[in-house]
Design a protein that fits this description.
The chain is an alpha/beta fold and 219 residues long. It contains 11 helices and 6 strands. The protein is globular, with a radius of gyration of 18 Å. 36% of the residues are buried.
């Protein structure tokens, strides 16, 4: 079973939340720092809101913080691009008969919008949302839950993620991990390369070369 993260793996959408975070903090006269990023990156919105309220010492409720984030993100997910090589790799995996699912910290509404607008939903059996389960991808629980929902053993799963913390959570669940490069986590590349079973800059690296016969058929 192949389990794919969405933001930064299937879609080039990590920049959406970086922009949202910068604007949210700027409205309050605060700067976007690495410490803040560490607290909100790749965690469900409710957990990120709790962290933000405490870290920034805000009077607003967590619900109000989330509402402002959603307003700032608006319809951005209807316009996010697919990452290079993703479509071709998903087609290749489907042709090989591989089972695939998504495991994401993204807002369910945003995830469905992006996958539908890009025509990627058809490749996946299901989507496991960290937000709905109240779990973090940096811990094994969500990966174990995704495997159980699919009726497979964790050790029979391969995870594709751009976050070192998420890869560590998947490995703790006894899954194989493929690190996927994304600019948001560029500072972790060396550690990712050392930690993951495989590290790729692009899904194009995983595409099988077309045979001469198939190349002629497609020409």
């Amino acid at each position: 079973m192949f389990l794919f993260d969405m933001d930064g793996v299937l879609t080039d959408s990590n920049g959406v939340w970086k922009k949202v975070d910068r604007e949210f903090l700027a409205r309050r006269g605060m700067k976007y720092t690495h410490a803040y990023y560490e607290g909100v990156a790749h965690v469900p919105l409710p957990m990120a809101a709790v962290f933000t309220k405490e870290f920034c010492k805000l009077p607003e409720s967590c619900e109000a913080i989330i509402a402002e984030w959603m307003e700032l993100a608006a319809d951005s997910y209807a316009r996010v691009p697919v990452k290079p090589g993703v479509r071709a790799y998903l087609r290749q995996c489907k042709a090989e008969g591989r089972r695939m699912a998504v495991v994401t910290s993204s807002v369910p509404e945003h995830c469905h919008t992006a996958l539908e607008s890009l025509g990627l939903e058809k490749y996946f059996e299901r989507v496991t949302f960290a937000q709905e389960l109240g779990l973090e991808k940096r811990k094994p629980d969500i990966w174990q839950a995704a495997a159980k929902a699919a009726g497979v053993r964790p050790e029979d799963c391969t995870v594709f993620d751009d976050s070192l913390a998420a890869c560590q959570g998947a490995r703790a669940a006894r899954m194989r991990v493929v690190g996927v490069h994304d600019a948001l986590f560029a500072q972790d590349e060396e550690e990712m390369r050392a930690y993951c079973d495989v590290y790729i800059k692009s899904f194009e690296e995983l595409l099988l070369a077309a045979s001469p016969a198939s190349a002629r058929r497609e020409s």
